[in-house]
Design a protein that fits this description.
The structure holds two protein chains of two kinds. Chain A is an all-alpha fold. Chain A has nine helices and no strands. Chain A starts with a helix and ends in a 7-residue tail after the last helix. Chain A is 73% helix and 0% strand. In chain B, 34% of the residues lie in helices and 13% in strands. In chain B, the strands form six sheets. Chain B has a five-stranded parallel β-sheet. A five-stranded parallel β-sheet of chain B has the order 10-18-11-12-13. In chain B, a hairpin with a 5-residue loop joins strand 14 and strand 15. The longest helix of chain B is centred in the first third of the chain and has 24 residues. Chain B is elongated, with a radius of gyration of 31 Å. Chain B starts with a helix and ends with a helix. The chains are: A mainly alpha, B alpha/beta. Chains A and B meet through helix 4 of A and helix 1 and helix 5 of B. The site of iron/sulfur cluster has 15 residues of chain B, from helix 9 and helix 10.
């Protein structure tokens, strides 16, 4: 039961993109086309789960025993960046088909603050390993959901008459704000 | 503090080690050239090239899917460097240019308003995007906003105009246009393009066997840009001087103007542009794609062979023409008479084509002086055979081999070859009703024959020769004997022909072709006194070379002795052997041979490039777009068409001087103004033009 609550809160209530406003650059950059948005969503699920787990392990077995918690942020950056590189190489060699699908998005996630944010949340909330797993996965799903919804809306915005000064990114930010407001309706659900 | 430093160093070292091991373990061989090329690209990851980032673009270059000039941002130096990495000649990057054939909706300045939307993509998504016709421009300028190089602007008529100088050919406009009208093509791609169902084509362009952009060149003439007109014609037809003189212009039959008024004099305008170049004293440069190193043998130097060699050369292949006669030109030189197409014009035109770097070997006959084995040994990658149709049909009557009897093509080619045939003061008759028969009689008159008659089985209405030609022969005083079928040739004791005996015919039931069949009247034998008798009742190709090599044993031939091929690809059942012209279609027209030569060059190009040889998708081959054929054309104000000046009949039969003269500049401009600049559905009515003039 706890896990379900955790998942729902991560996907909807505390949605990483719309409630916490992390990961803004892929949110705007890869949401112009549905196809790219879907690719990006899957890449994030993949990387976030891996990153969540590894950083949890690093934190629990290295940083805490050595009493070096204050190095968390800088350490995590290093670990996540290396991890993404590693995954990229691994996929290229072992699962070329998956690499072809996700390849161009992987480097974009290297420095993604949504990934970093979730890893830090996991640690701050003092989640257990399983909880960290569920939360990383759920946050990633929330990311994908928001991104795909947003891409759908943006494709529709194309059909609308937008005043010239507001075109493209400006109207996208306005739209994002409105969707985010809609997500506030989930507040207090859990 | 110290621990922190140590820890970070350690963590860094661990990550670095893991990654370096991983890069060993998970190493995938990648062409080193990819990284090298990527260094030369702009690194902007802008996608202007159409690939997902610079890395993908570099990979595409290495895989041969993109040219060294792929990067839309980096300049020519980058192109040179990339080409050097690939070991290519930097020139091998043919520039691509965007082109817009649509002149915009119904030619009005109005911008189309659908509720609330202002992008072509949106309009297309919501309403199917039909403005005037299915393929036409919507006029919202998605292409204008996508272009990163400011090369497209909305013209004053509400359709996008492309600045060819700043266009880098990135292809962004082509991809964004929901109607697919903008096309970003290199010269080679343009040369290979054929009429397709969803293209923006005027009725005349649909009809032209060579598929020339007729409204395009007429438009250039109207603007006084005669050189541009020549270039437009040359993209489809290298023999514009010849065609401008002898083409029976099937396009004019479909001219939209002819529905309300006389057709535009399309061919006269072509001749005007072509003559402009010749008389200007200098040849316009013709661009040629970088060499591909492939070699093609072109057998037969008639219009089909010349056209095929010309297009192959422009596509970057090497072509060598093998010709049986002493000079190139085929029927242009040896069939069509001097007074219609002067030899010096043919010479000038052919020289310009050979100057592109085409080798011509004359006086060598395929099947006798050389065989297909010789060509293959010499290293030709493909072979084109366009030997024309030079074997005259026989009348199959007694005495037709007597002295004084000739065959049409034999007679004309000997005359053109400069042979002296005693004709002066003699009585001559020509059997047949086609263009060759007419050419024979008009030649005979000019050689001083005392009396010249045409003997034809059916009536004047059924004569296959062009109306203008028949009229010209009538004016020049040729006698016509209709409904007369030769029966036998009567000779004197020395075997010289003295009379042609023929049977009078009458018209019976219509036959399969819908023409009423002539039937002989019993006992109506009549004798016509003649000293010279020429049979010109049609020809067929000579397939004699087939026996010269067992490689050709399986070659499929139709019962008309032509090559049995797909009429669109013109590839024979021997994959490296292609054909076109009269040898493929049976006796036809010069433009038909030229169009065929280009199609064959297209197929040969596909074959040489290792692609599947196939006709284009949605090909419009010899058909029309139904919606573009109108029954009425509002807004046309009747205006007489400019007629060319011709020499008077009395004057012209004295010598071989060219009968028809070129339009003057003034006449040409007036004629060009009669063109409605048609597309599929749109056209510019005269009334619009008048209004503009007033304004
Ligand atoms: C008298 C006459 C008048 C015509 N008038 C018109 C006209 O007004 N308008 C019009 O559009 N069309 C006209 N035509 C038709 C037109 O000329 C032909 O359709 C056109 O020339 C066909 O071109 P081609 O290249 O297929 O063949 P050709 O022009 O016949 O050329 C074939 C070439 O191949 C060469 N050749 C043949 N055999 C061999 C061999 N074994 N080895 C090497 N070389 C070989 C020949 O010498 C010739 O040069 C006329 C035809 C004739 C006969
Ligand atoms: S009016 Fe001009 S464009 Fe239209 S069919 Fe005639 S020649 Fe072609």
């Amino acid at each position: 039961m706890d896990y379900i609550v955790l998942a729902i809160s991560a996907i909807l209530v505390n949605n990483i993109l719309l409630a916490q406003y992390l990961g803004n650059c892929p949110f705007l950059g890869t949401s112009k086309k549905m196809e790219t948005a879907v690719g990006m969503a899957f890449a994030v699920v993949f990387v976030l789960v891996m990153a969540g787990l590894i950083t949890w392990i690093v934190n629990a077995f290295v940083l805490v025993p050595l009493k070096l918690e204050y190095l968390r942020t800088i350490g995590f950056i290093l670990v996540i960046a290396s991890l993404v590189q590693f995954v990229e190489m691994f996929l290229k060699k072992s699962i070329p088909a998956l690499y072809a699908g996700l390849g161009i998005f992987l480097p974009l996630i290297t420095t993604n603050c949504a990934v970093m944010g979730v890893c830090l949340i996991n640690v701050n909330e003092e989640y257990t390993f399983i909880q960290a797993l569920v939360s990383s996965f759920a946050y990633a799903v929330g990311f994908g959901l928001a991104l795909i919804l947003f891409a759908g809306v943006r494709e529709k915005v194309l059909l609308a008459r937008v005043p010239r000064p507001l075109q493209d990114t400006s109207i996208a930010l306005v739209t994002a704000g409105i969707i985010s407001l809609a997500f506030y309706a989930f507040k207090g659900m859990v | 503090m110290i621990e922190a430093l140590f820890f970070m160093l350690l963590l860094g070292a661990v990550c670095g080690l893991v990654l370096s091991f991983a890069s060993k373990i998970f190493y995938v061989w990648e062409d080193p050239r990819i990284a090298e090329i990527e260094n030369f690209l702009a690194g902007a990851n802008c996608g202007g090239c159409g690939f997902t980032g610079c890395g993908a673009a570099a990979e595409a270059v290495v895989k041969g899917k993109a040219l060294p000039n792929v990067c839309a941002v980096a300049g020519p130096e980058a192109t040179t460097s990339v080409a050097a990495v690939m070991g290519m000649d930097p020139g091998s990057s043919e520039p691509k240019i965007s082109r817009n054939p649509c002149e915009g909706g119904d030619r009005a300045e109005d911008k189309f308003y659908y509720n609330g939307v202002n992008s072509c993509q949106a309009v297309a998504a919501m309403f199917g995007g039909k403005r005037t016709c299915d393929v036409g421009c919507l006029g919202y300028g998605d292409c204008v906003s996508i272009c990163q190089f400011n090369s497209i602007r909305m013209g004053e008529h509400g359709y996008p105009e492309i600045d060819e100088f700043s266009c880098v050919g990135c292809g962004a406009c082509e991809r964004i246009c929901p109607k697919g009208i903008l096309s970003v093509q290199s010269m080679s791609e343009r040369l290979l393009e054929t009429n397709v169902e969803d293209a923006a084509l005027a009725p005349c362009q649909q009809t032209c066997p060579a598929e020339i952009d007729i409204p395009g060149y007429i438009g250039s003439i109207r603007e006084g840009n005669y050189e541009a007109a020549v270039h437009i014609i040359r993209e489809r037809n290298p023999l514009l001087l010849a065609c401008g003189r002898v083409c029976p212009h099937p396009c004019e039959d479909y001219c939209r103007r002819s529905i309300e008024d006389e057709a535009v004099s399309i061919n006269q305008l072509k001749r005007f542009a072509a003559d402009y170049e010749m008389n200007s004293g200098k040849r316009l440069p013709i661009s040629v794609a970088p060499s591909t190193g492939k070699k093609v043998a072109v057998v037969g130097g008639g219009p089909a062979g010349i056209s095929c060699a010309y297009f192959l050369r422009r596509l970057g292949h090497d072509a060598v023409i093998f010709e049986a006669m002493p000079k190139l030109g085929g029927m242009l030189r040896y069939g069509i008479p001097e007074y219609r197409l002067p030899k010096k014009t043919v010479d000038w035109e052919i020289q310009g084509i050979l100057d592109l770097g085409i080798e011509a070997r004359t006086n060598v006959q395929f099947g006798k002086d050389f065989t297909i084995n010789d060509l293959l040994t010499e290293g030709f990658d493909a072979i084109f055979v366009g030997q024309g149709a030079w074997v005259d049909y026989n009348l199959k009557i007694d005495g037709e081999e007597s002295k004084g009897c000739f065959k049409g093509i034999d007679f004309l080619s000997r005359l053109s070859g400069g042979e002296e045939i005693p004709i002066e003061g003699k009585k001559a008759a020509v059997v047949g009703g086609g263009n060759s028969a007419i050419d024979c009689v008009r030649n005979l008159l000019r050689c001083g024959a005392e009396e010249v008659s045409i003997v034809y089985r059916r009536t004047r209405k059924e004569m296959p020769a062009n109306e203008v030609e028949i009229e010209a022969a009538e004016h020049e005083g040729v006698k016509f004997l209709f409904l007369a079928a030769p029966n036998k040739v009567i000779t004197d004791d020395d075997g010289n022909v003295t009379h042609l005996e023929y049977l009078q015919m009458e018209l019976g039931e219509p036959d399969a072709s819908g023409r009423r069949r002539p039937v002989p009247i019993e006992g109506s034998e009549t004798q016509l006194p003649v000293d010279i008798l020429i049979t010109a009742i049609g020809q067929q190709p000579d397939m004699g070379f087939k026996d010269s090599s067992d490689k050709l044993a399986d070659l499929q031939i139709t019962r008309w002795n032509t090559f049995d091929t797909d009429p669109e690809t013109l590839q024979t059942n021997i994959p490296y052997l292609f054909t076109a012209g009269d040898a493929a279609t049976g006796p036809s027209l010069v433009v038909e041979a030229i169009g065929g030569g280009r199609r064959a060059a297209r197929s040969i190009h596909q074959y040489l490039m290792g692609e599947e040889v196939k006709a284009p998708e949605k090909s419009l081959f010899k058909r029309h777009i139904e919606e573009s054929l109108f029954t009425e054309v509002p807004g046309v104000v009747k205006k007489k068409r400019s007629t060319m000046t011709e020499l008077s009949p009395e004057e012209r039969i004295k010598n071989f001087e060219e009968v028809d003269q070129t339009l003057t500049e003034e006449e040409a401009l007036a004629e060009a103004n009669r063109c409605l600049s048609c597309c599929r559905l749109c056209y510019t009515p005269d009334l619009d033009k008048l209004e503009k003039d007033v304004a």
